[in-house]
UniProtKB/TrEMBL annotation:
Protein origin, superkingdom: Bacteria
Record-given protein name: Uncharacterized conserved protein YecE, DUF72 family
SUPFAM superfamilies registered for this protein in UniProt: TM1631-like
Organism: Streptomyces radiopugnans
InterPro entries, alphabetized: DUF72 (IPR002763), UPF0759_sf (IPR036520)
Annotated Pfam families: DUF72 (PF01904)
Length: 293
């Protein structure tokens, strides 16, 4: 189906670069991106979660990719309520006296500083948007954000700001209670009010942190599916332990009917693989592309 794009959640992950998937001819940042974009039509930028993007990088990404290729961009951690390393903030916005390795949440900065972070995030994405390369802005909220009036009000404000960037928005919750029977309808309605894609996720099931594989089309323009792997350490281990998994064909085939159903209800579906283990993500993306035809 032509409205489904498949890709991975990074093209620069050190494990991928060291796996041998890139040929020797794909040298440096430019060579690797051009090689990747010749094989997939979509990629997620996750480095923007750890530090604010730059206008220069956005311009280079647009110049190095063909028409039709799009970047989903993960929102900077501070903007979605995560604790953020002080050293990743612009120097003039850092709390006075705080060491670079300390961590801070939005409430500790004040409204003016948070507003400035939003402005810089939006400005840095402008070259991608102007070139038609900005797919969606992913607002991924932390596991500590549980359903309730205060949390929902925060999400509403975030989605309104992300929607003002002028492209599509996707929202992902890490606390499984957002998808529990008593909250699932309200969660979907929250996404619908902002024309945001409620991200469908694949993770190991049966764990306290397991998010159920709910695939609901909440925005007519876009649906998003993110595959995090099925590690038994999901939500408890290190980043590498939590995401290390190699999908089997059978595991991927389970999602084909769900993805096709989303494609019938949305103009476009983005399918992204976040299972980091050498070339595991690109291999899964290639396999899924084949399964979807």
């Amino acid at each position: 189906m032509g409205n489904i794009l498949v890709g991975t959640c990074s093209w620069t992950d050190p494990a991928l670069v060291g796996s041998g998937w890139y040929p020797p001819s794909a040298e440096g940042a430019e060579g690797r991106l051009r090689y990747y974009a010749g094989r997939f039509g979509l990629v997620e930028v996750d480095s923007t979660y750890y530090g604010l993007p730059s206008t220069r990088n956005s311009r280079l990404w647009a110049e190095r990719t063909p028409d039709g290729f799009v970047f989903d961009v993960k929102a900077f951690s501070l903007l979605t309520g995560h604790s953020t390393r002080v050293g990743s903030l612009p120097a003039e916005l850092r709390p006075a006296g705080a060491p670079a390795g300390a961590r801070v949440r939005p409430g500790a900065l004040g409204p003016a500083a948070v507003e400035e972070v939003w402005r810089r995030f939006a400005d840095a994405l402008e070259p991608l948007r102007a070139a038609g390369r900005l797919g969606a802005v992913l607002m991924q909220f932390p596991p500590s954000l549980r359903p309730g009036p205060e949390a929902e009000a925060f999400v509403e404000r975030c989605l309104a700001r992300a929607g003002a960037l002028g492209r599509h928005t996707a929202v992902e919750f890490r606390d499984p209670r957002w998808y529990a029977p008593e909250h699932s309808a309200d969660t979907a309605d929250l996404a619908k009010r902002h024309s945001a894609a409620l991200v469908a996720v694949d993770t190991a099931q049966g764990l306290s942190a397991s998010v159920p594989p709910v695939a609901a089309a909440t925005a007519p323009e876009l649906s998003v599916v993110r595959f995090h792997g099925r590690s038994p350490h999901w939500g408890t281990g290190s980043k590498e332990d939590s995401y290390r998994h190699r999908y089997t064909v059978e595991e991927l085939a389970e999602w084909v009917p769900r993805i096709r159903a989303l494609a019938e209800r949305s103009d476009r579906v983005h399918v992204l693989f976040n299972n980091c283990c050498g070339d595991a993500a690109v291999h899964a993306a290639e396999t899924m592309s084949g399964l979807l035809g």
